[in-house]
Amino acid sequence: MAAGGGGSEEEELKLLGAWPSPFVHRVRLALHLKGIRRYEYVEEDLTNKSDLLLASNPVHKKIPVLLHGGRPICESLVILHYLDDAFPDPRPLLPADPYHRAVARFWAAYADDVFFAAWIKSLQGTTEDEKAAGTAGALSALLTLEAAFGECSKGKPFFAGDAPGYVDVALGGYLGWMRAYEAVAGVNLLDAGRTPLLVAWAERFLALDAANGVIPEVDQIVQFAQVLQARTAASAAATSNS
Hints:
Helix content is 56%, strand content 8%.
């Protein structure tokens, strides 16, 4: 699947990814928000990783990997920083002020280290207690992010103000899976009664042109999640019977 291409070797951009990955969604959102549409997107089979992926990210062997002029940049938040440095215009993701940059980095890290870390346990847990604890942790983290949105946005549409920025992209990459979670696990993570600011923010973010074609449809994610859950259950059953 190509989203453009061409240009000189030093200008060529290639993104190695997999469509279900929220971390790949992040990078594609950032590229589109920055007006970078001329890049090649390469869909990886994560059960049979390409030689290019293994050579480009030999440490973690994971997607996403951005290749700029053949040189690899790994890890989604690192890629976002790189894009801001390499393509500062016309729309930087991070603010110019050092303090506000630090605040944005803090909340993006919180989205990964607290919210996602808890949420993934609810998706991958092998017992109901594990899943319930993960869901509780994710919901608690979203309440904290709700308060952070109120503080960071200062009444404007996005974490970064009038236009989406670094934290918006970091959290926005999860929105496809967050929307599908109710069908997967019976829990509505973004509930207007609990997090009205984040619910309104999510609607605005998903309506952006940059999100069009990047965030998968709910049904597509649900089907993928069901396959993953079946594999996890089968693996757990095989382990308990061995």
